[in-house]
Amino acid sequence: MIYSVRGKLIHTENSAAVVECGGVGYLCQTTMNTLKTLKLNSEVTLYTYLNVREDAVDLFGFATQSELATFKTLISVSGVGPKAGLSVLSELTAEQVAMAIATDDIKTITRAQGIGKKIAQRIILELKDKLAKSEQTQTGSVQMPQAAGGNVPKAIEALGVLGYTPADVSPVLANFDAGLPVEQLIAMTLKQMGRN
Predict the structure, then answer these.
(1) Buried b vs exposed e over 138-153: b needs ≥16 C-beta within 10 Å?
(2) Residue 35: which residues within 8 A CB-CB, separation 6 or more?
(3) What's the confidence (pLDDT) of residue 140?
(4) In degrees rounded to 5, what are phi and psi of residue 122?
(5) What is the reported pTM?
(6) Are 88 and 97 in contact, with CB atoms under 8 Å apart?
(7) 8 A C-beta contact, residue 85 and residue 123
(8) How many CA within 13 A on the CB side of residue 85?
């Protein structure tokens, strides 16, 4: 599996970027959010997902690890393929996706091109189900941060949708003001965890 590609961005087109690494140009299908962060003829790093099918091998690239993790989470939902995952992440950030799922916000998810109400409902239902099952299978109880009031529990739930356990995120969230908006807590936690 290719974890990431790093090199010169030599070409972009609608939902794709070409990164030249060692003389080879890798075409990475990507989101509009990633494309907005890239500058032509500069050195870039894209975190990748290799999708192998019977009739094609596609490489998907993302500017951040949290965007990649959200993409993998989205395509784990039955009926949601890579094209739909890219569509959602072209319209919403990883933090917005987590918030929409945690708050049952179907309307926000359907803003993505090609995502109807049924698919949005399936995304929310299946990912909330996965979160509930992972919480049930964890052994022992996770200690909440001292200032577990405010928006910390909502942030923990939203981050759980992205595949992070309460044990992973609670120590990081303990460093932030629990009164901050949930979306900001999620963004700060993902940024901090990306450094580790």
Answers:
(1) eeeeeeebeeeebbbb
(2) 12, 15, 17
(3) 42
(4) -65, -45
(5) 0.76
(6) yes
(7) no
(8) 23
Q: Give me the residue label for tokens 């870039």.
A: 44
pLDDT in tens, 109-154: 999 999 999 999 999 998 877 766 555 554 344 444 444 568 888 8
Helix spans in 65-165 (H): 65-75, 82-91, 94-102, 106-109, 117-137, 152-161
Residue numbers of the chain with a pLDDT score lower than 50: 138-147, 196
Q: What is the DSSP letter of 138?
A: S
Separation between Cα atoms, residue 174 and residue 165, nearest integer Å: 14
* Residue 56 Cα to chain centre, angstroms: 24
Three-state secondary-structure class, residue 77: coil
